[in-house]
Amino acid sequence: MGIGYATAYRTGITPWEKAGRTGLPVLERLLEREEVARPDKIRRAIDLGCGRGAHTKLLLDRKWDAIGVDDVRQAVDTAVRRNGVDDARFVIGDVRHLVHSGVGSHFDLFLDVGCFQGLDDPGRTLMARGITELAEPDATVLLHSAGPRSWLRGGRGAERGDVQRAFRGWTVDEEPDAAGAEGSGTWFRLTRR
Known about the structure:
globular, seven-stranded mixed sheet, alpha/beta, Rossmann fold
């Protein structure tokens, strides 16, 4: 998983970052809903596959106690330098092995902008198990997938059924109000049952 992304970061070919910026207004609306649901609580979040940390920084700016995790050292090093955040906010780790990656536990929110879609089925299951183990009882997962044709953009894509198979014990809802431009993908909101 990391070799292809490491090469892309080295060569500066990172189309997923542009896609992430394009979807920012939608993400901000989704985060606002999560913040309203947790008004008087310290909100802990983890940005899965954080890359160079733009979404981790967004969470921090919105007063989340946030940490980013990615398995590409160059991306994480850049995240620390670019965002002016101390390196304790980022972990070099594999989302398939979250429990032992040093990210902590008791998270209220798991943010995934294009990470899940790039994993194979066993990797997706491992990631979901780790999330379940680290999640608070009322936790939410916000997961964006570019859809099944995303192999053109660096991933296998994921549809609702893929998410449901991996996340046993979670309710999976699509976010119809979060639909973007044609082909921009789908946001899923997962809550624990």
